[in-house]
Amino acid sequence: MKERNYHEQLNIDNTKKLRELIKELPPYVATYFRGIEHTTAPRTRIAYAIDLRTFFEFIHQTNPLYQEKEIRNFEFDLLTKLESTDIEEYLDYLKLYTKDGKEYTNDERGIKRKLAALRSFYGYFHKNKMINENPILQVSMPKLHDKAIVRLDVDEVATLLDTVESGSKLTDKQQAFHSKTKERDLAIMTLLLGTGIRVSECVGLDRKDVDFNNTRIKITRKGGYEAYVYFGEEVTAALQDYLVLRNKIPAATGHEDALFLSIQKKRMGVRSIELLVKKYSSTVTTMKKITPHKLRSTYGTSLYRETGDIYLVADVLGHKDVNTTKKHYAAIEEERRRSVKDAVRLRE
């Protein structure tokens, strides 16, 4: 039997996870997920399933008519009985609720995402004429307040890479591991900072995906399509140094192709790289919470400052909509517009 690659196995794992979530929900939820399968990503469907579970738990907990029923047995006509006021109560509930003795909170972004899941859910049945009314359309999306884009400055990037290379600011315990993983860690950090790829794209890399002849890597983007991302001399050097060691490591069964291996000789996961970034970045700045996504923002900022081409930045980062890119780099666009205010002279 042909061995599955990382992304094929991930899709299988996501399918299993979604099926387990659907088992907890009313049968018509499965109909909805079959209907949106070809227009949504697996991770989106899982997030929607979790959000819908929260919605049905709210109904179960707060509506006397449904407190005695198992969620699995909620009838389809529940959707037609709910009004916009019920949805507004649900949004208020999301701000603070308790489940299994633990408190949960949602900020405006979390509430907006859960409302988006409900909009998609109701929208599917309304579009297919299975319900006549869609109360979700009467509920306004929460207004989001802009957040400052967190990114590293040029000197912070240099300090960060120096720290990864030397391990000088790490604790004694961290330095013990650093001696074994320095080349790997430097390759990961340099790759993230030098290409702007997502952490999920990084963990999915296999050794064969690195093409030094054309200075590029083949990645699998969100949505499952493949793309090439090009890298420069610093990334080349870091990857080559690491691969000299990587090619000598006998990986665990099923992980032989993986580019980045953990101490256990298995493919590194998203969480492992998130912790790696946190460990090193905390030695550089305590004022900024640096994640792999912030390294991506750092790369995007540097590329936009150098090229001034927002469409190129969008393409390199894999944004399907250039407006997503514009939103992230609006402050730089404003700065560039201001810089040319005296470029045109009306009179000498």
UniProtKB/TrEMBL annotation:
The keyword Cytoplasm applies. One of its GO terms (cellular component) is cytoplasm. The keyword Cell division applies. Transmembrane segments: none annotated. Residues 147-342 form the Tyr recombinase domain. It is found in: Cytoplasm. Residues 16-126 form the Core-binding (CB) domain. GO terms for biological process: cell division; chromosome segregation; DNA integration; DNA recombination. It comes from the Bacteria. InterPro entries: CB, DNA_brk_join_enz, Integrase-like_cat_sf, Integrase_catalytic, Integrase_recombinase_N, Tyrosine_recombinase_XerCD. GO terms for molecular function: DNA binding. Keywords: Cell cycle, Cell division, Chromosome partition, Cytoplasm, DNA integration, DNA recombination, DNA-binding. This is Site-specific recombinase XerD.
